[in-house]
Amino acid sequence: MLTSVRAIIAFLLFIVFAYISGALLAYPLKLSLDAYLNLEYKKYLTYATLISGLLISGLYLKLYRLLSWQAFGFSGRPKRFLSLMLNGFVYGLLVMLLIEIILFLLGIHIFNERRSYMLDEFFIRITKAVLIALLIATIEEAIFRGGLFSGLYKKTNAFLTVTLSALLYSAVHFIRYREVPPDTEIGWLTGFTMMPDAFRRFYEWSIVDYFLTLFMLGVLLGLLRLKHNGIAACIGVHAGLVVIVKLADYYTVRTSGSSFDFLVSPYNATFGWISFSVMLLFTVIYFFKLVKKQS
Fold it and tell me: Quick one: which of 11, 138, 153 has its CA closest to 71?
């Protein structure tokens, strides 16, 4: 029991350290890349926190003498890894397509008539969506279902590891930095001054449906991590979901006259109680399938 408590405290401290490091790293990242990218400072903060998250995950694994590619979830032969990732990608596409179909049937989403549906443009957009989705999924899964998951699992158990990693995965999506006001002098401490306001959404009950959707997705990804002892399937499912979300954000619009509008979060055009219900259904089915196979 005491070992588990210590592991959880270490887990939380490493997360705090990741955000502090990200706030510090954002300024030199801006100085290095601003001439090429010229991004808003909040973007540099986000990217710096992701980089910091990867580095901190490595330190977390080092603490428990686990540091390796396998501990980050990159296990198995390349052919097997790609096969699991592809299967997961198809699974993620199907889950998200089901959610999108329900949103259309309920009149919450409609096609955006202002978009071009020419085949060549659609091919370019879907290619970009797939590449971005794979990049996002690989980095996030290496952190949440990779390093942090492996370190916590060694010192606790499957239930705590899946639950805490899913809670963290959901929570970080609501830490949103605002852009700095014009003519603000940006320096080493700017990220720290922006940090308190970045947690503003945790005071709002209206995020509950969106939060639970991402939490349930985190649980599903955690079960996949346990089942396959790696993050290949997790990357695939995650990427498949992101592809459909990005395409839906571009090619659809959320209507304002649907009687079912309350089933979608005010903070997101897609996620809400409908997506939570679908995620819950797939997670419960997969859980019982996993239990049945193990017994």
Answer: 153
